[in-house]
Write a structure and sequence with these properties.
The chain is an alpha/beta fold. It has 17 helices and 16 strands. The strands form three sheets. The protein has an eight-stranded mixed sheet, with helices on one face. Strands 5-6-7-8 form a four-stranded parallel sheet, sandwiched between helices. The longest helix has 19 residues. Bound molecules: zinc ion. The site of zinc ion has 6 residues, from loops.
């Protein structure tokens, strides 16, 4: 063999061995920054993510990932941040069709004069189907990949969520008065059990039981909901300590706080996600921590309904996982924009504490990602970009005036970037949004249908 031939053979051999050492993946997705939210909170400049099937295989500097993996597809976004998909820990997605139906009202007037009558006259399975589609569309386009929901006809919410390729922890409501889907709490519990069985092992849906609150659901029903959730190893979702009225009534009638009441009933003990936790007594922090309860903090809703300011800093100090939620959009927000909730969560704590260092940008971003996943009890699967986790990833563009120039990634994510800057959204390894177009929902059909519903809902309330 001549020298040239020998060199050529050596090159071929080394190429072959390099290629054979490379692992095959479906996609290498690279960008200017990869914000991992891993335990070290790595932010990788010129980073990349190797993705195979529904999972993240590895996250690291782009040269390293390209050396180790060969991909069928390469996607490079030099003007974007890759981030874990955002997690909305409290919604009533189907209520999107009631968006802005009645604003600027006291909670009791809002509920009794508008929400309950509007629900009684309009909410059926079709309403929930179209409302959920609208909610999913808005959430996906603003970077949310997982949401925790509680409403009626929840198996329809689950169907639509799965169909759209989104991830949900979805709770069937159980409430102490006749609801649009079930006329009694007993019937709701039977329906919830059937739903838990249907979605027992789904890659995208975690089915849950959702007793509405301690003031709308009897103690027996609350306990039955806990037992049912535990029997299937699924979570319980509830509204808890949202208003001063709820807090004062519990003290008056039960001689204990709402948190203590739930704890004494045994309802907190187990996999639980509680929304709000605005009104807490000092002893409640220990109860929530001991029970491992996850909290959904909804700053827009708490401000708009003047519910109060949740003691987020104290909860975080106590080691209670707190995520962010939008709540419903019918006069208690009125949108599903988690980018905005991050910004508001930080600023609400600062103005309340009189301390601009309270709740930093990186803490607020944690709440929208990894802490939200912990609040849901799903942090082994989602909430950060780490090998072995599901590929729930979003890209956020940086080539916009409101993100230029950039000195700090977390500052930009929380205080400057907007929902409209979200570009691409992947859930479970599959793109549901590309370049701001939803791939799995017909946006025009959904918005046209929403207008039809507006006319119908307005008519149904005009007799009031
Ligand atoms: Zn709510």
């Amino acid at each position: 063999m001549g020298r040239i031939t020998r060199i050529a053979a050596a090159i071929l051999l080394s190429c072959w061995s390099l290629a054979s050492q490379q692992q095959a993946v479906d996609l290498i997705w690279s960008a200017r920054y990869v914000v991992t939210e891993d335990p070290q909170r790595r932010v990788i400049e010129d980073g990349a993510i190797a993705i195979r099937g529904d999972s993240i295989i590895e996250v690291g500097p782009v040269e390293e990932i390209q050396r180790k993996y060969s991909a069928r597809n390469l996607m490079d976004q030099p003007n974007a941040i890759l981030s874990p998909g955002l997690i909305n820990t409290h919604t009533h997605a189907a209520m999107s069709l009631f968006r802005g139906i009645a604003d600027d009202l006291k909670l009791q007037d809002w509920l009794e004069k508008f929400i309950f009558p509007a629900e009684a006259k309009n909410v059926d399975r079709d309403f929930v189907r179209w409302g959920t589609r609208l909610g999913l569309l808005e959430m996906a386009l603003s970077g949310t990949t997982t949401f925790a929901d509680m409403y009626y006809f929840e198996e329809t919410v689950a169907e639509e969520t799965k169909q759209a390729g989104m991830r949900g922890m979805l709770g069937q409501t159980v409430i102490g008065f006749p609801a649009p889907d079930y006329k009694t709490p007993e019937a709701a519990l039977v329906g919830a059990e059937k739903y838990l069985k249907t979605y027992a092992n789904d890659p995208l849906i975690v089915p849950a039981v959702a007793p509405h609150a301690i003031y709308t659901t009897s103690d027996d029903t609350l306990q039955a909901a806990r037992t049912l959730a535990d029997r299937y190893g699924k979570p319980l979702i509830i509204h808890l300590a949202e208003t001063k009225t709820e807090f004062d009534e519990a003290l008056q009638k039960r001689k204990k706080t709402p948190v203590a009441a739930l704890s004494d009933l045994g309802v907190l003990q187990g996999w639980t996600l509680a929304a709000h936790a605005v009104w807490l007594a000092p002893a409640d922090f220990g109860l929530l921590k001991a029970a491992g309860t996850g909290i959904a903090h909804c700053p827009s809703s708490n401000m708009m309904l003047a519910s109060g300011v949740a003691p987020i800093l104290k909860m975080l100090q106590a080691g209670i996982p707190v995520g962010l939620g939008t709540d419903g959009v019918a006069g208690s927000n009125n949108d599903h924009d988690l980018m905005e909730e991050m910004d508001l969560a930080a600023k609400l704590q600062k103005v309340t504490a009189g301390d601009p260092s309270a709740l930093t940008a990186s803490q607020a971003f944690d709440m929208a990602t990894i802490l939200g996943a912990q609040a849901l009890g799903m942090s082994k699967m989602i909430g950060s970009l780490e090998s072995g986790k599901r590929a729930d990833i979003i890209s956020i563009r940086l080539d916009v005036p409101n993100a230029t120039p950039m000195y700090g990634v977390y500052s930009q994510l929380v205080y400057s970037l907007k929902a409209a800057d979200v570009g691409d959204v992947m859930v479970n390894g599959r793109f549901v949004v590309r370049s701001r177009r939803m791939l799995t929902i017909d946006d025009k059909a959904v918005m046209a249908k929403a207008e039809e519903y507006r006319a119908k809902v307005s008519k149904s309330l005009s007799g009031n």
